[in-house]
Amino acid sequence: MGGERSVRAGFVLVGGRSSRMGRDKALLPLDGSTLIQHIASRVQQAAGSATLIGSPERYEGLGYPVIPDRIQGPEGAGRGPLGGVYTALCATHANWNLIVACDMPAVTADFFEDLLSAAEASSADCLVPETAAGLEPLCAVYHRRCRDAAGQALTDNLLKMHDFLNSLHAQRWPVLDPSRLLNANTPEEWRSR
Questions:
Q1: CA-to-CA distance for 178 and 129, rounded, in angstroms?
Q2: What are the pLDDT digits (tens) for 117-141?
Q3: How much is the pLDDT for 4?
Q4: Nearest to 90 by CA among 154, 18, 16
Q5: Which of 43, 56, 174, 189 has its CA 20 to 30 A from that of 106?
Q6: Alpha-carbon Rg of the chain, whole angstroms?
Q7: CA distance 52 to 54
Q8: Alpha-helical segments (H) within 78-138
Q9: φ/ψ bin of 2: left (φ > 0), alpha (ψ from -120 to 50), beta (otherwise)
Q10: What pLDDT, in 10s, does the model give residues 33-48?
Q11: Strand extents, DSSP E, 28-125
């Protein structure tokens, strides 16, 4: 294998402020652990690794490697989800990178495995799940060649994920069961999961 790059890697974005939840949603209790550990374990099962992108001081005790956002914004905050995607793509040694937000309690390792396999079989830069509600760029697979486009978008201060997707050869991946991708951003959404 020598100099060959690994095919897959997994990353979980935990750099958000959780302002709508009122507390750190990554650390919400779920099935005997935390939401972030629940998601990271499924990412690791499918991708072979799981690295958290966020504050090492806050998340280093959870059993996964943690990388801080590469580009800091005001008050030490990252540059939003795109900053997390860029950090992951700068850190990776893999061609295909599963990058997932920390607030989707219903995702499964099988779902991630299917998504990664579809990405590997495609010629796209990025494979993005799509439900009737729209695209889900924070549960998607990005090829490492997207790094420069992410860096340029950050330089140009174009931080919206959908704008970033429009700059890529992104392929949509239809998801018939949207409940898999439900986000828990508020206490009400968390209780009704």
A1: 10
A2: 999 999 999 999 999 989 999 999 9
A3: 47
A4: 154
A5: 56
A6: 15
A7: 6
A8: 80-91, 109-120
A9: left
A10: 899 999 999 999 999 9
A11: 29-30, 33-34, 51-53, 66-67, 94-101
Q: How far is it, in rounded angstroms, from Cα 19 to Cα 136?
A: 20
CA distance 83 to 89: 10
At residue 135, the 3 state secondary structure works out as strand
Instruction: List all residues 6 or more positions away from 159 whose beta carbon is below 8 Å from its beta carbon.
Output: 79, 80, 82, 83, 153
For the record, the structure tokens of 142 come out as 């990005």
Amino acid in position 164: F
Low-confidence ranges of the chain (pLDDT < 50): 1-4, 76
Q: Name the pairing type of β-strands 134-135 and 170-174.
A: unpaired
**Taking every pair of C-alpha atoms in the chain, what is the biggest distance, in angstroms?**
50
- CATH placement of domain 6-191: 3.90.550.10
